Amino acid sequence: QKEVEQDPGPLSVPEGAIVSLNCTYSNSAFQYFMWYRQYSRKGPELLMYTYSSGNKEDGRFTAQVDKSSKYISLFIRDSQPSDSATYLCAMSENSSASKIIFGSGTRLSIRP
Amino acid sequence: DGGITQSPKYLFRKEGQNVTLSCEQNLNHDAMYWYRQDPGQGLRLIYYSQIVNDFQKGDIAEGYSVSREKKESFPLTVTSAQKNPTAFYLCASSTGRTDTQYFGPGTRLTVL
C-alpha cells in the first residue's frame, strides 16, 4: 500500500464547475499538507500549504484536511480552462523539508 | 528574477554513457533536491542536500550521483549503472526550515 493514494483521473468537467480533488494517506504522523499544480512538461508549482486539520482558502481554491479520516481535498470554484493541469498532493511529518511524500497526481481537464 | 533553472530542457544519451543534469538556484535556499517523475508514479526522491558539501540518498539513489560544492548548484549525474534512466528529472529547493519546495522546469532525459 502506498503512503499516499491519489486518483489519477483523468477528470474532465465543464468550465464553471466546482472541482474536488482528493488524497488519502496512511501515515498518521503527517502534519503538513500541500497541493501542487503541474502543467504539461513543466515543473510543479506550489498552490496551497496547510498545517494540521482545517480549511484554508486562497481565491478560487480551498484546501481541506481531515486528519481523523486521513483525507485531504482541494476544491476549485468557478473552474477555468487555464486550471487544466495535473494536481499533486504532498505531505510530510515535520517542517525540516527533508522528506515530502507526493501523490501520483490527478490529471484535470476543464472543457470550455 | 529569483528562481530555479535546469538545463538542458531535453537530453538524449546513448546507453553506457554518463550524463550530468544542471540545477542552479538564486533563491538563497539551503536545501536542494532531485526527483524523478515517471508516468503514473508521482515524484520519487533521488538525492537531497540540506547544506553545502553534504547530501543524503533518497529512495532511488542507485545509479545516480550528486555534488554540492556551492550553495547555488546541485548537479545530478546519471551513470551507466542506472538501468532505466529515461524519465523527467526535477530539481527543487527550499529554505530548509519549512516543507515548501520550489521546483525548476525539469529536464527530460531519453536514452537511445
Keywords:
heterodimer, A: 112 residues, mainly beta, 6-stranded mixed sheet, 5-stranded antiparallel sheet, globular, B: 112 residues, 7-stranded mixed sheet, 4-stranded antiparallel sheet, 11 strands, 0% helix
How would you briefly describe this protein structure?
The complex is a heterodimer of chains A (112) and B (112). Chain A is an all-beta fold and 112 residues long.
How would you explain this protein's 3D organization?
The complex is a heterodimer of chains A (112) and B (112). Chain A has 112 residues and is mostly beta strands. Chain A is 0% helix and 54% strand. Chain A contains no helices and eleven strands. Chain A has strands at residues 4-6, 11-14, 19-25, 32-38, 45-51, 54-58, 61-66, 71-76, 85-92, 101-102, 106-111. In chain A, the strands form two sheets. In chain A, strands 2, 4, 5, 9, 10 and 11 form a six-stranded mixed β-sheet that branches. Chain A has a five-stranded antiparallel β-sheet with strand order 1-3-8-7-6, with no helix packed on it. Chain A is globular and about 40 Å long. The model of chain A has no long low-confidence stretch (mean pLDDT 92). Chain B is an all-beta fold. Chain B is 0% helix and 50% strand. In chain B, strands 2, 4, 5, 6, 9, 10 and 11 form a seven-stranded mixed β-sheet that branches. In chain B, strand 5 (43-51) and strand 6 (54-57) form a beta hairpin. The chains are: A mainly beta (112), B mainly beta (112). The interface between A and B is medium-sized, with 26 and 27 residues.
